[in-house]
Amino acid sequence: MGDSQARVIVIDRRVSLKNSHQHHYPMDDQQLRQRFPRFRVLVMGKANAGKTTILQRVCNTTDQPEIYNTQRKRINLSAVAPSRERGEHNIENEMVFKANPGYVFHDSRGFECGSVEEFKIVQDFIERRGKATQSSQQLHAIWYCLPADNASRLLTGAEARFFQECDPGAVPVIAIYTKFDDFVLQTQQFLTNQGWDEDDAFEEASRSASNHFTEEYAKVFHTTRFPPIREVQLQHEQGRCKV
Ligand SMILES: Nc1nc2c(ncn2[C@@H]2O[C@H](COP(=O)(O)OP(=O)(O)O)[C@@H](O)[C@H]2O)c(=O)[nH]1
Ligand SMILES: [Mg+2]
């Protein structure tokens, strides 16, 4: 991660993999660049899940991405037409941050409600791009952003549908638990309510939240048909959280 404010905990679930992408992880930035001059990622998750924030962190920028349509024409986000007319919500569009053009992102925004139509668009995209022989067109990963501040509802609605029904084929799916700092604060709150001193509660929450989250909440993914192959817990550094 480029941003020093981001604290990242990676949990390798070591599920047995049917796909050939397993050896892509972990790779450092340079290895990644050599292998994939343009690393293409489908980014999923509800509105407000923290998608834009994590992409900005990965690309080490605070800028908004530029969006290109399938004709490689830049979409002008300041235009007055409604976003649908501007074609902004097309999964085929490429989102690129000037600061790091080595990543190409696709946003599956429409999938939020988990409707049958939208699900089909996502599944088709993954199938087509996962199998694309032209490596520049190939989809290399799916990052599913799941806000940890609502831990008991991780696998509901569109998320349940995706992890139960969407076959990613050989494309690795990474679950990214965003807003993990919020989960830590909730744990601290729980402990203070139990009579813990506030500082002790924070220390204990920081120490135990990661395992607690994995064992109590993230385990729902063990039961799904297409579980993520890797999980990342992402939090703003304590004390410098901007929210
Ligand atoms: N506390 C906390 N807030 C976050 C984190 N990541 C994102 N946010 C906030 O959540 C809100 C939505 O984030 P955004 O990246 O725009 O979500 P998107 O709609 O999925 O693109 C913003 O106010 C962010 O500042 C995080 O790790 N911790
Ligand atoms: Mg966004």
Question: Describe it for me?
Answer:
- The chain is α/β, with parallel strands linked by helices.
- It has a single domain, classed as Rossmann fold.
- It has seven helices and eight strands.
- The strands form two sheets. Strands 1-8-7-6-2-5 form a six-stranded mixed beta sheet. It has a two-stranded antiparallel ribbon with strand order 3-4.
- Strand 6 (141-147), helix 5 and strand 7 form a beta-alpha-beta unit.
- Helix 6 (180-193) crosses helix 7.
- Mean pLDDT is 83; it is low at 1-7, 11-24 and 238-243.
- Bound molecules: guanosine-5'-diphosphate and magnesium ion.
- Magnesium ion binds at residues 51-52.
- Guanosine-5'-diphosphate is lined by residues 45, 47-53, 178-179, 181-182, 234-236, 241, 243.
- It comes from Jaapia argillacea MUCL 33604.
- This is G domain-containing protein.
Model regions low in confidence, pLDDT < 50 over at least 5 residues:
1-7, 11-24, 238-243
Classify the beta-strand content into a percent band: 15-25%
State the shape: globular
Helix content: 25-40%
Organism: Jaapia argillacea MUCL 33604
InterPro entries: P-loop_NTPase (IPR027417)
Protein name: G domain-containing protein
